[in-house]
Write a structure and sequence with these properties.
By secondary structure, this protein is an all-alpha fold. 82% of the residues lie in helices and 0% in strands. Helix 4 runs antiparallel to helix 6, helix 7 packs across helix 14 and helix 12 runs antiparallel to helix 13.
């Protein structure tokens, strides 16, 4: 019983870290109107702000995996969140477009350790059958952050101004770090923090990278990450702008309400992935079959985004987006699980390479969306592209689940 509490408690701590991270990511989109007015930027400039973060986040992920596979996960993961807290607070000090971009670049670098680190922790502590649920729990912080962000960020912004929203986030990150150090003191967790004797290790960084990218499974999951991650970034960063620009939701209470429902669906999707896999396997299905059912359902749900441009009524558009965002939650949890199994010896390195690739694709997509929405005044094309990426992810996911996973 104590082991179960410790196991899932660790996932909850990582969920809280992810929640803080996504409160910050959502904050920029939510206070975008104030930022654009005060710093004199348009949608294209805002796209650069989003993209600058993802470009640096990409570079960080490409390198941070090696560190996480070699050194103490406890201190590297916790330290990364503490550094994130400082970078987030600096965002509120931006006085120009250039300084805002600079602070978001810094944030991307220090934030890059979150997913590779959490995925390594889950892969070491949880058996394959439970990993999708563990991934769903810690990743659900993205939707929890998105869920509470509208009320929290818009409320804080209206009360003390948009700049102090980021100061508050920095303080919360510092408090989390103290909690992490206290919660991870147990000697029984020592096996989680460092490589175990059974894990083969190369001494050369180049050999580590080569051993990972030479795997066929790496490239199958690569196609998934460059399809699914841009989808997630699109929904998290641009939906507040979409609802304001195309649907005329200018009141904070209206916008907070619809975004809360939308990101609640994302959270349910994250957790449903692992729960459905567990339920199906307990009913006699193979793990491979259960995963295929989930990933095909996820892609079908995301494809609903392609119909948003045809919906005249805001209510219908909102329902379609809620379904699409739910599917995104399903897919992200499944992607993380598949990424963990690409290279058991170098989970963080593989996760960093894959996550960095997905972030790079996401950064490019953020710029495309910003340029297209600024030029056409519409989000119809981005929604259509998103539905096509879901189909691509389904095909790659089918190939990536050809074999039954091993412990």
């Amino acid at each position: 019983m104590k082991n179960q509490i410790r196991k899932w408690g660790l996932c909850l701590m990582m969920m809280l870290a992810t929640t803080l991270i996504y409160l910050d990511r959502q904050a920029v989109g939510l206070v975008a109107t104030d930022i654009k007015r005060e710093l004199g930027i348009d949608n294209a400039g805002l796209g650069w702000v989003f993209a600058a973060f993802y470009y640096s986040y990409t570079l960080g992920q490409f390198g941070v995996g090696l560190l996480l596979d070699r050194y103490s996960l406890r201190w590297l993961y916790g330290g990364a969140i503490l550094a994130w807290a400082g970078a987030s607070a600096l965002t509120g000090r931006a006085r120009s477009f250039a300084s805002l971009v600079g602070f978001r670049i810094l944030l991307g670098i220090v934030e890059s350790g979150n997913w590779p680190g959490a995925m390594r922790i889950v892969s070491r502590y949880l058996p394959p059958r439970e990993r999708a649920l563990g991934n769903g729990i810690f990743t659900s912080g993205t939707s929890v952050g998105a869920l509470i962000a509208p009320a929290l960020i818009l409320g804080l912004s209206g009360w003390v101004g948009w700049r102090h929203c980021f100061t508050a986030l920095g303080l919360m990150g510092s408090v989390w770090f103290l909690g992490w150090i206290l919660a991870t003191r147990s000697a029984e967790l020592a096996q989680v923090w460092r490589a175990q004797p059974g894990e083969k290790k190369q001494t050369s960084n180049w050999l580590i990278y080569r051993s990972v990218v030479s795997l066929g499974q790496f490239w199958r999951v690569f196609v998934i990450t460059i399809s699914v991650n841009p989808t997630l970034y699109f929904f998290l960063n641009w939906l507040p702008v979409y609802y304001r620009q195309e649907r005329g939701l200018t009141a904070s209470t209206q916008l907070a309400g619809i975004l809360t429902l939308t990101y609640l669906a994302l959270d349910i999707g994250y957790l449903s992935c692992g729960l459905v896999v567990l339920l199906l396997t307990r009913r006699g299905l193979s793990l491979r079959a259960a995963r295929r059912i989930v990933l095909l359902s996820a892609s079908s749900s995301i494809a609903c985004a392609g119909l948003v441009g045809l919906a005249e009524a805001p209510q219908i558009a909102s329902v379609l987006l809620i379904v699409a965002v739910f599917g995104t939650g399903l897919w992200i949890s499944m992607y993380l699980t598949l990424a963990q199994e690409v290279s058991p010896a170098y989970v963080s390195t593989a996760a960093g390479l894959l996550g960095g690739s997905g972030s790079l694709a996401g950064a490019l997509y953020m710029q495309i969306v910003g340029r297209v929405s600024q030029t056409t005044g519409s989000f119809v094309l981005p929604f259509s592209i998103t539905s096509l990426m879901a189909a691509t992810a389904a095909a790659a996911g089918w190939l990536a689940t050809r074999r039954e996973p091993h412990a």
